[in-house]
Structures are given as structure tokens and as C-alpha cells.
Amino acid sequence: MPRWKALPEELDPQVREFASQLRRLVDRSGLSIAAVADRTGYSKTSWERFLNGRLLAPKGAIVALAEVTGTNPVHLTTMWELAERAWSRAEMRHDMTMEAIRISQARAALGEFGPNGPAAAGRGGRTGGLTTAAPDDDGPRDRPHVPAQPSSGSGRAGNRAAPSHPGAPSPGGPGRGKGRRRTTVFLAGLVGALLVIAAAVLLTDLGGGDEEPGNDVAKSPSAAPATSAPELPDGVKCFGADCTGQDPENMGCGGQLATTTSRATVGTALVEVRYSKTCGAAWARITQATAGDKVQISAGGESENGLVNADKDAYTPMVAVAAEAEAEACATLTTGTKGCTTEQ
Questions:
Q1: 338-340 and 302-307 as β-strands: parallel, antiparallel, unpaired?
Q2: Which of 15, 58, 123, 303 has the greatest number of CB atoms lying within 10 Å of its CB?
Q3: How far apart, in whole angstroms, are the C-alpha atoms of residue 168 and residue 178?
Q4: Backbone angles phi, psi at 309, to 5 degrees
């Protein structure tokens, strides 16, 4: 049975070439996917996705793989940049296709109302949907007051001739509706302008604290930066207490952002404390273990646990730490052997 699955047919050629290059590097190193995951800090599941073309590996994973396999990181990073552009173009094409489908569906839905417009407009001799109600509502009251239209014949003949010009609005029919619509539009515009002015005045007052020494509203934001978390790099999703209980890989805290601060050998297993200063958090990792072995990270009264599965490795969720020395990792093996890390 071949080691690698066939890459998806829909992959961009540049992405396909990059995934094939990653496979060649792993094959040449002689490492299993589990070993690559252990040495790079990215999970086995993630590497399976990277190597099978289902997900583009992040730059940090590529640099870590280059170090593990002894590959020049500059060349591999160049290939990654080309693949990343191709991947972005493919995502953009997909987004544009979905947008076109949504627009087409919206137009089709709006088109269902098309036949009603002309049918209803025929009652008032106009094509606008808003004017069709004017003759029914206003006509019976206005018709007795319609003056005779001047004509070369008698006044009665002039009155009969008026409806024969569908383009000319009658004094008591659609013309009035049009006038009311203009008035409504004008009033709506006036109200909108007043709302904009009111909002501008309100915002000006809120921002004018410098002119009024007693204005606490303007002063309150100045204290916020003191308690806010530091600005995080792209891809990092948590810091400190927000990271507790979270997966370090999913939160972007692993890879190059993590270091091993302490380790210990427990039986045949290696247990480590992995620490990310960027995230202000730590977690435990165990490798060369046996299914059923347990690993735990503890710091500041908080602890998280991990269980080894068939991959012979595992890591715990994170706990918040103020310094790398605060965290301790312990392992409990199925043989009953226990042990904890010691600071390096």
C-alpha cells in the first residue's frame, strides 16, 4: 500500500508541486508523520492535511520542517510563497463563484414579482407600482371637481378626450399621487438630514472633553490601554487567561512561538513543558509514550490533562503563566510510573 494518497485533482499546479516537495522531504528524512509532528510542534493531524493537499501549511510549519530535515529554509520558503499566492487565487475564484451564484439567485427571486407590476399599473395608466392606488382611492372624490379640458369642440367633448392620452396624468388621479410621492421623498430626506446633523452634534459633544475639564466621558478611554492585552501577531488568537483550556495549535501559539522550557524522561516517555511568551501560556507534551499514558500541565492553581492515543504522543490544553518557570508537566504511565519535569 503506497504511503501517500493521491493529491486532489482540483489543486492548483503550484500547490500540487509544493505538496509533492514536502512529501519528498519527509520521505528523504526517513521520519514518520508522528515524528515530524513531534519535532516541529504541529500535530499529526495537521501534517496529514498539509501533506495530502487539504490545507496549506503555515510558514512557521515550513520553517520548522526545513530545520528538522536539514533543508535550506530560504528555498523552501520561496516555494511556499508561490504556493500561498496560488492558494489565495483559488480561494478568490471560489468566493467570486459563490457571489455570482448568490446574485443570480437574488435576481431570480426579484424577477418573480415582475408580472405583478405591469398588471397593477394598468389600472392607473402608469407603470409605477406606487401610483396604481391613486385612481382607486382618490378618483371617486376628485372626479366631480375635474375641470373641463379646453378643446375645439364643446366642453363635454373635451372631458371625454382627456382619458385618451394615457401619458398625461389627470388632475385628480396619478398626478396627485406623484405630488404626494415628491412630498414624501422631500420629508424623508429632511428627516434623514436632521438625523445626520443630530448624530454629528452628539459625536462632537462626546469628543469635546478637552474643552470641558469636568467631562469624564472623554477621560475614561485613557485608562483602557493599561489593562488591555498586548497586540498579538497575525494568527495568534489568545493571550494569558484567555488561552487557558484552549488548544495551542488552534490558537496559533505553537510552532516557532513555542519553546521547551523543561523536560523529563518518565519510563520510556519524554515529557516536556512547552511555553509561548507571545501567548503568555504553557502546555505539556509527551512523546515516545504508550496508548493510555497521561500527561498534565500545572501552573498557578490551574491544570489541564492529555491522554495518549495510538499516535504515541499527546499534548494538553494551555494554562496561563506569567513566566516560563511557573509551569510543571507530569506524566503517569500505564505501568504506574510517574514523573515530573525539572527546569532546564
A1: unpaired
A2: 15
A3: 12
A4: -110, -155
